[in-house]
Amino acid sequence: MLKYLIRRVSATILVLTLVSMSVFLIFAVLPMDPAALTCGKACSPAVIEGNRHRLGLDVPVQVQYGRFVKGLFVGRDYGDGAAAFHCPAPAFGYSFNRHECVTQLVGEAFPVTLSLAIGAFILWISVGVGLGILAARKKNEWQDRLATAFVLVGTSLPTFISGILILIFVALKFGLVNPIEMGRWVSPYDDPVGWFKTFIFPWITLALLYAATYTRFTRSNVIETSSEDYIRTARAKGLSEQDILRKHTLRAALAPIITLAGLDFAGLLGGAIITEGIFNLPGLGRLSIRAVLRDYDLPTILATTILAASFVVIANLLVDIAYAYLDPRVRVG
Amino acid sequence: MTTKPFLEVKNLNVAFPTEDGVVQASNDISFTVARGETLAVVGESGSGKSVTSLAVMGLHNRKRTNISGQAFLNLDSGPVDVISADEEVVRKLRGKAMSMIFQDPMSALHPYYSIGNQLIEAWSLYNEGDKQAGKKRAIEMLDLVGIPDAAKRVDEYPHQFSGGMRQRVMIAMALINNPSLLIADEPTTALDVTVQSQILQLMRDMQKEFNMALILITHDLGVVAEVADRVNVMYAGKIVESGSAEDIYYRPDHPYSIGLLNSIPKIGELDSKRLIAIPGQPPSLISLPQGCSFRARCSFADRVPNNLCATAAPALDNKSSEHFSRCHLSEAELVKARKEIGGN
Fold it and tell me: Which of A1, A43, B87, B328 is buried most, with the most CB atoms less than 10 Å from its CB?
């Protein structure tokens, strides 16, 4: 098990290095000059060159990457003299549009995205898995048909439709949210009720889509597992139907769902661009979309991309470890 | 034997309604098995061997199966008809009064739980006591069925066992609560030949040890000759012949049994002949032909007067007190038939 862990962790570090390198390289070859973007339209070449030096963009790309990695661990200084400033570790760069260290921006946006992801995750797992089990147990009965209808609606409605519908016809119509307050981050420690009110509709929007997929997946997994020989063995032993479901069917049927859930959750941590956009939530998704569409803020894009990739890669590792714990065949083999 | 046989099946019918029609998988099945007795059920795939025993175990989904008839377990507390009894009552007989092992030991054990865990689970259903007591009993059982180093292997998982070892584990699990009836559904089919005979020997030993009634479902007539006291030959959902192993081997009274015996290769015969196969396929169980279901494949149907095979289904007639068969052929024609297709 230890050998397996060491192998997996080193593979993860390698993947993260490669991901950051490729992202870095992509931005290096883009036909945009980040230094030119630092000042307005009528900018003198001297100012651009000055900024280029201050941002460390005047050295070859491999040196830039080296400085970037170093900055992640020890922090980074930009500029010199009176204009010098310092971004503490882990420094992802300096946003020349927002005039802030990127880490600072990410740090402000991440709690929003985390709140969104956790709440939606809890909602969709309980609804999706619960409904999936129910549908499988009541196969071809009305509960199953209801679940099928839910799956159909949930998977066919994109979040940019369901989100807007929920926002306009539920949240705003009944005055359940204050549109002015929604763009502000409310910590659950300071104001749990306000936090809940801010996030409940985004949660529902996101969960609707995922819960539908999970219902379908759980249903088919439970049905498939129910016809396994070892379930017949469990029945022949004299176990009750509840025990068969709880101990035998679900153990095998839900293991693959853990893989899916881990990766989906990690994907969301990178930012739910559409949902955050609709509900005006200042999370990572909105941070990246602004950086891409409005500001051409390369350091921020770099940071959010690498972060999103890291979440997925790390979740992959955690899911594999969890799976090895769940399935003894993986553990030994 | 003066006491009642442990299992008495009377006029059991099992049918599955499907979109194409009702599949009559078991048709008017009656038989008995006593403690200490081995009944072999033989027949080709789809002849209703497994369906019948699953009905006795109460393992058919009652909503999707039409079952009629009776199957009494003569327990110490009195007889229970497992067909009409409440599902919960039948469940509490499973694993305790009757157990079953299956064809494919590779898939019959839960891959996520250790062997010990699965044995203890079966034990703790019917025994008071903590996990330690259960584990002790599990090791005892594994030892009994010949798992070497049982105390260590009890914590291992199914994928760490070979097929033969897994079938031993299945037997240990089926017997852990000392059942009076064991149904073995083709227990050796998925195993290689040397392991097959070990498993058969083990089941015979266990039968003696626990004084069980044993129903052995198989299509291997070699297995039957080795272990069976009595034999039911099944064809298209019906018992076509029933008798002692000697009766079936030396005096088969149904052309299907005669055909089955002739399709076994005989080792040691000097002039190697081609095997004699029974021509054709069994009929569809949705619309059984009128008359005898074996008629279309039977080479002797034309020797029965008045075209009787095509019009009347033969009843299960006594040939002797313990030997029955469903055939219209006269005794004299049968003797001729046995000789003709190279039988005994």
Answer: B328
> Smallest Cβ distance to B100: which of A236, A327, A332?
A236
CB nearest A327 (choices: B96, B107, B112): B112
Interchain contact, B121 vs A237, CB within 8 Å: yes
CATH code of the domain in which B179 resides: 3.40.50.300
Nearest-by-CA chain A residue for B114: A328
Model ipTM value? 0.89
Query: Residue B279 belongs to what domain range?
Result: 254-340
Which of A229, A238, A248 has its CB closest to that of B107? A229
Task: Identify whether residues B205 and B81 lie together within a single domain.
Answer: yes
Can you list the positions of beta strands (E) in A42-101? 76-78, 85-87, 94-95, 100-101
Same domain, B189 and B291: no
Interface residue A246 vs chain B (CB under 8 A): no
- Of the pLDDT bands very low, low, confident and very high (cuts 50, 70, 90), residue B82 is very high
Give the ranges where chain B is alpha helix by DSSP (H). 49-57, 87-91, 105-108, 115-126, 131-144, 150-153, 163-175, 193-210, 221-227, 245-250, 255-262, 308-311, 331-340
Residue B127, pLDDT > 90, answer: yes
Across the interface, whether the CB atoms of B110 and A240 are under 8 A apart is answered no
With respect to residue A93, please indicate whether it lies within any of the assigned structural domains. Answer: no
Judge whether B242 lies within some domain. no
Number of independent structural domains in chain A? 1
Asked if B99's CB is within 8 angstroms of A233's CB, the reply is: no
**How far is the alpha carbon of A326 from chain B, nearest alpha carbon, in Å?**
7
Cβ burial of B66 (10 Å; 0-12, 13-18, 19+) is: middle
Structure tokens at B9: 């099946």
Average pLDDT for A36-41:
72
Q: What is the pTM of this model?
A: 0.85
Are B63 and B180 in the same domain? Answer: yes
CA distance A179 to chain B (A): 50
In a domain, A157, yes or no: yes
* B138 and B259 both lie in a single domain: no
